[in-house]
Every structure is written in C-alpha cells, then in structure tokens.
Amino acid sequence: MRRWRRLGIRHSSGGTRSWRRRAVELHACIGRAVKGLLQTEEYARAVFRMWRPLLDGEAIEQGVSARMERQKLFGRRPAPLLSLVIDEHVLRRPLGGREVWRGELEQLLLYGHQRNVATLIMPMEREEHAGLAGPFTLIHSKNQRRMAHMEVRDVSALYAEPKKVSPLEATYGALRADALTGGRLPHGGPRPVGRVRADGRARLR
C-alpha cells in the first residue's frame, strides 16, 4: 500500500499475506483489539481512526479494504483451522461505540460457531498471563512449515526460524491451558458471549 508507506507505516508484508492465504492452520493470541482477520468493516474503520499519528481518510479506507480482503480466507475450501485465545477485556471494551462493538461481538459469535474455528477466552481474573509480550499468530502451511507473525504498531515481522517460532508455540500452549482452566464457568461450560439463533443470526447475552 503506497499511501501507508508514504506515512512511514510498514503494513503486513506481502510475504505474510501470501503465507496466510496458504495456511492450513492459524493460531492467534489476541490481546489488544479484535484481530484484523475477524473485524467488521465498521470496527476496522474505528480502529484505524484511533491510530496515532492520525491517518487521513484515504489511508483509513485502504487499511479497511485490506482487512476485508483477508476475510476471503473463510470462504476457502478446504477451510483452514483457526484457533483463538482472546483476552476477555478485548470483548468488553466497546471500541467505536456500542453499536460498532455489538456488531463485532455478533460477528465473532458467528465465526465461533463454524466447525473450523475454536475460540477460548482468557478471563480477566487470571493472576498470571503468558502472553504479556504482545499478540502473535502461528501459521502452519501445507508443507508442514511452521511460522510466527508478530505486529507491534508500525512493525510487522514474519519468523520461520525454529528458535523464534518454538518459544511462541510454547507460549500459545500455556495460554490455551490457562484459558481452558480459567475460562470456564462453575457448571463446566465455556464462558459464553451469546448464542446463535435457529435462523443463523447471533444473539448476545
């Protein structure tokens, strides 16, 4: 995206987008805002409007278009396995306002009911958290290559070296274990954010 480069923002590299398209598994730790792959158009636009330094309208719309393009991954056949560990505060923070936030939660709920998507919630009351270094995504390709993608502000990095990827895989395993043990209600079921009605529409609790 030329506009992003002129602003000094290094957006996700073409290499990362290419590997994401070819991935058979994606495992994501989500800790600040909903991951771009899962954002509604309104939520993505709200997130870009909050960036500092401020983005102009053209850059915002380019960013939103790129995130909507990523979601074609959900229409791929066979569909990739998507595993998510989401911090509970991400679901509770009404970024963009109540309506935008509600629309985003409904989209997450609908994605979460797809057979290839597994979602766990990291409860806010947990006293330990293995993912404080920041969010990341593990990417597994058809040829069994394992990679990790990290993005912090204007820096995007894709790692393929085992010495970089293995610690993040261990971190993700710890996060899943914490979410499984701490993210359940007393009756044993997973922490809910709502349900899907018979007509396929999401309904929040």
Chain-wise SSE layout:
Blueprint: H1 2-6, H2 14-22, E1 23-30, H3 41-49, H4 57-70, E2 81-87, H5 88-92, H6 98-112, E3 117-122, E4 136-141, E5 146-152, E6 155-159, H7 162-182, E7 194-196, E8 202-204
Parallel strand pairs: 1-2, 2-3
Antiparallel strand pairs: 1-4, 4-5, 5-6, 7-8
Helix pairs in contact: 3-4
Protein described:
The structure is a single chain. By secondary structure, this protein is α/β, with parallel strands linked by helices. The protein has one domain: 2-Layer Sandwich (Endonuclease, Chain A). Helices cover 38% and strands 22% of the residues. It contains seven helices and eight strands, in the order ααβααβααββββαββ. It has helices spanning 2-6, 14-22, 41-49, 57-70, 88-92, 98-112, 162-182; strands at 23-30, 81-87, 117-122, 136-141, 146-152, 155-159, 194-196, 202-204. The protein has a six-stranded mixed beta sheet with strand order 3-2-1-4-5-6. β5 (146-152) and β6 (155-159) form a beta hairpin. α3 (41-49) runs antiparallel to α4. The chain is globular, with a radius of gyration of 17 Å. Residues 1-13, 183-192 and 195-202 have low confidence and may be disordered.
List keywords for this structure.
205 residues, alpha/beta, Endonuclease, Chain A, six-stranded mixed β-sheet, two-stranded antiparallel sheet, 38% helix, disordered N terminus
Short note summarizing the structure:
The protein has 205 residues and is an alpha/beta fold.
Helix % is: 25-40%
The string of secondary-structure elements, in order, is HHEHHEHHEEEEHEE
CATH architecture: 2-Layer Sandwich
As for the number of domains, it is 1
**Tally of DSSP β-strands:** 8
**Overall geometry:** globular
CATH class: Alpha Beta
Q: How many helices does DSSP assign?
A: 7
| Low-confidence region ranges | 1-13, 183-192, 195-202
As a percent range, the share of strand residues is 15-25%
Alpha carbon gyration radius: 17 Å
Major β-sheet profile: 6 strands, mixed
Termini separation comes to 39 Å
